[in-house]
Structures are given as structure tokens and as C-alpha cells.
Amino acid sequence: MTIGTSDVATQLAAIRPPATRVPPIAAEEYRARLDKACALIAAAGAGALLVHTGASLRYFTGVPWGATERMVALLLPVTGEPVMICPHFERGSLEADLAIAADLRLWEEDEDPVALVADAVRGAGGGTVAVDPLMPFAWMERLRAAGATLVDGAPVIDGCRMVKSPAELACLAEAKAMTLEVQARAAAILRPGIRASEVIRFIDAAHHAIGGGGSFFCAVQFGRATAFPHGLPGDQALEENQLVLIDTGCRVHGYHSDITRTYAFGQVAQEIRDIWAIEHEAQAAAFAAAAPGVPCEAADAAARRVLEGAGLGPDYRLPGLPHRTGHGIGLSIHEPANLVRGDRTPMAPGMCFSNEPMIVVPDRFGVRLEDHFHVTETGAAWFTEPQPSIDRPFG
């Protein structure tokens, strides 16, 4: 699709959702997740895992709720039935979302849910509980005071969530395909004077129309604002011969897309084109470094070698790359492991990462190309093909 050749109404009318949609995660996969978690709990020397509301609760139970001040949690014992802690008045909603068989332990508004957790721990044989790192500290101190021994549950949770199943890869692939099409259609509606807010509204409407449930997030930056990785306040108007950076994503069954394109609206300076080419090379180098058994930090190092060879950096110095090269992605938009120095997690088939070694020229401009890949048995595979050029962002 060509930059700046269409309008909002035309592009929205042309969108069609996929003819065949990816199915949600099946019941047998939830059971397999629980079984894997139990093995990891036992290997960690714990008797149960306590999971807080959020992406990890959704991963193990199908319940897609966000956290509030009211405790909703899963206690998964190594032996015995999973236990769900939930406010009594939420029972109907919980049962409608719950994808696993579980013992419901419900609490009224004047009761203490931590006491229910403590009782469930004792019922599971007491001892050591591996705790979700996102569980509120105050609740866990009260659980500790009730006699439980607590250890970090991240090795259990990350040990399950980092490696994606074929069903999860399919959800991620569909979400990313949707967002890439939306990105292309957003480029088509650009015109001099268009406000960033209008582009953001279009992208949200396009994500709805294509079946992604609207935008999970959206950043639209023009000119100087591209030098700030997460933009600047205010509502910019696009000018002729400016650099455009758009970063956005949606979700399919909770699984995220997160794609950035940076391109020229008209003519831009040769310096910008040169930096764009270095960014493109760095992204390719990070991808080429990915393979089973390779530590995650190696991809970050590969991207930085390209930048340093071009006189940028080193490390996080600017002009250069001010942040990690990439992050894990799945039910959370940012999740372990990360493509960053110090993360020595060995890559494994099924692990999924963003690849976005952004180059910032302070207070002037920035270039970020972001696509995602998954590790295969022999190397890595792109979910979306990288941007081919600064003038042809979508081929």
C-alpha cells in the first residue's frame, strides 16, 4: 500500500477479518499447562504455586481478569485439585470464564481471602509455596505470618509461559498479521496536517474492523518526536518531508502483536536514510543470531556490533540504542526472556521475541523497526517480514 494515497473511509470499508479464525486455547492444553507447572513446582522444592490475577492466571485457568484490590488467585498444589480463591459475588462470572476444573473457595466482603489461601495451603499439605512475583507484598507477608514458607514462583511460571505451543504461535501470528495490515492502511491515510490523534483513532477502528478487538496500544510520532522512544506529549500535525514512526498492536485470545514501522513522508535527509539503513542491518543481525541454545543476550550483542561498527554507541550511549534489542511476548506484551546483555536464558524452540534495536539521534530523530520472531528447531522464523525500505514500508 502506498503512503498517503487514500482516506479513512475508503480504508475502513476495505478491511475484512480473516476468513478462518484461530480457535481459542483448548481444554486439553490447559490441563497440560497445569501438569507441566506441577512438575516444575516439585522440582523447585515447593508443594504448591500461588498465581495472581493477570496474564499468568489467564494462562493457567482461562480467566482473563485484571488485578484489583480484591484477591482472585489460583493455588495449584502438586497433588490434588486446583483451588480458586474469589469473591463470592463474582462466582457466576468466574464460572463462565474458568477453563479448568477447580475447587472454588469463595470469600465475602467482610472476610479475609488470605485466610482462605492459608487454609488451602494447609489442605495441600502445608510447607513451601512458590509465589507469583506479581502477588502483592502485603498479602504474602500475611500468608507468611500464617505459617507458610514462600519462595519465588517465577521459575515455575516463566518455565511454562516462555515456550509457546503451536496453538499459542497461531494466536500470535494472527494478531501480528492483523496489525501489519492495519499499519499499511494507516500509512495510506496520511496527509499534510493530519493529527496524530486522528491516526490513532483510525488504527483503533481498523483493529476493531479486522477482528483484533481494537488497539491494545498505539503510538504515532512525527519528526522530532521520533527521537523519544515513547513519544512526547501533545497532538502533532504531520508536515511534508517528515519522518513517521507508528508502533501499535492488538490481541487475539489475549496474545499480543507489537509492530513498529518508521518511514519517510515525502523526502527526508540523507542522514536519516543512513541511520535507517543501519537500523535495518542491526535488526537483521539480531535475527541471524537467534537459534536454539544461544543465550538471549547474543542477539542484543549482534545488533550492537552493527551499531558500533557504524560509529554509534557504544552500549547505551547516544546516538545509538538506548534500550534492549527485544523482549519476550505472549499473553503479556513484555514478558521474559529479553534480548539484553545479562539475560543468558538459552533460546529454545517456541520462544517468541520482539526485534527492535532502535537508533536514537538525541532531540532530532529516531528510527525503530520492530518485527517479531519465534525460535525454531534450526534457527528462527519471522512472524512478519521486516520493512524493506524507508520509502516502501510494506513492500
From TrEMBL:
Gene3D superfamilies: Creatinase/methionine aminopeptidase superfamily, Creatinase/prolidase N-terminal domain. The keyword Hydrolase applies. Residues 33-163 form the Creatinase N-terminal domain. SUPFAM superfamilies: Creatinase/aminopeptidase (SSF55920), Creatinase/prolidase N-terminal domain (SSF53092). One of its GO terms (biological process) is proteolysis. Keywords: Hydrolase, Metal-binding, Metalloprotease, Protease. InterPro entries: Creatin/AminoP/Spt16_N, Creatinase/aminopeptidase-like, Creatinase_N, Pept_M24, Peptidase_M24B, Peptidase_M24B_aminopep-P_CS. It comes from the Bacteria. Residues 171-377 form the Peptidase M24 domain. The keyword Hydrolase applies. One of its GO terms (molecular function) is metal ion binding. It holds the Pfam family Creatinase_N. Belongs to the peptidase M24B family. This is X-Pro dipeptidase. The lineage of its organism: Bacteria, Pseudomonadati, Pseudomonadota, Alphaproteobacteria, Sphingomonadales. The gene is pepQ.
